[in-house]
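Per reviewer request, we include the raw input and output of the structure prediction for the construct analysed in the revised manuscript.
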Amino acid sequence: MKKNIFKFLIPTSLVAAAPLALAACNTNNADSEKLNKENADLKSQITALNTKLTEANNKLAKFNDKLDVAIGLKSNVWNSFSGDKVAQSLQAYANAKVAFDKMITQDMISTTNVKVNNDKVVLTKPDEGKSIPVVFMDLDETVLDNFKLQNYFLLNGMTYDYNLWSEFVSAGISEEVPGAIDFIKYVWSKGGVVMFNSNRKMSEHKQGSFNNLKALKLEEKYMPDWIWWMKGVDTKSATPWTTTNGFDNKETRMNAVSDKKFTIDGVADISFKVVMRVGDDISDFNDNFTKSKQISLQSINSALYSDESGYGKLFGNTDLNNKSVTYDDKTKTWTKQQWSASYVFIPGNQVYGSWIKQIIGSNDLEYEKSIELIKEYSWKK
């Protein structure tokens, strides 16, 4: 193309110079061909390098996937199979029975207003100044073991997927955290009530949770509508368990049960007191405190040791002098109640929970941040 254009542009007066110009053109063509060959070689080398880089990135991605699995593998195997997990759970629930027996000896507690018939729980109104004892229990990793799902996430390089989570809940296939069902029945047999205080959604997950617990041999009579206080209940309602669009924290739900009187199955002025909270996450107990944006990990640890808050003394408590506490996120203050309570922490779940955000600052256990923290708490730096 260049050659034709060049000839077309040559004036008649320069014809004598044509051989010279054609020689120059041939030289340029040779240089051009050489340059084109060099460019082609360079492109080939770049393509080869890009191929190798892609292969290296793929290997790195696979390595990172294996690293993610390796990081979570020990914890998942321990939670899924170890006798240690079983022993710790059984021990926690055995201690919970002892603590509950102590809590119901308080003067303001009545254990004669809950009757468990063959197919139904019947409540009667407590005497003035008396209340029915309530145990509030989280569900996930407290009553229901979800490590089938956690293992699926791990094997597929995932941390969480809401749709899969909802599908899993609907399937109702979680195993029992050892000792949980027996403890629930024990509380009811002693004149107490067990309520479920989960962040599973009332609107989507109640039926699957009900079916799962029933499959684990918890009879329907122990699961009337009014014991469900999952995410979505509105504590401003006279019947919170019938609502699904509330935004109250777990602690606010528990406070409402202790502070209000309810009409249940036609019986008015039913008074409850929450004497025990059971969970596997620090935020199952006083999440108005532990999930407050202004509260640091150091603040949580300080409160656990503080005599002033009385918060830490409630874990494993059997002393009636240690009163239940509430935390007001607006005033940043603790208030001690007139009755005692005991907190039962079910051990073992290191895979997910509010502790990750408190320590790392996000919902994922990020590798680099975790390493930096470990370096700070290492024998030799």
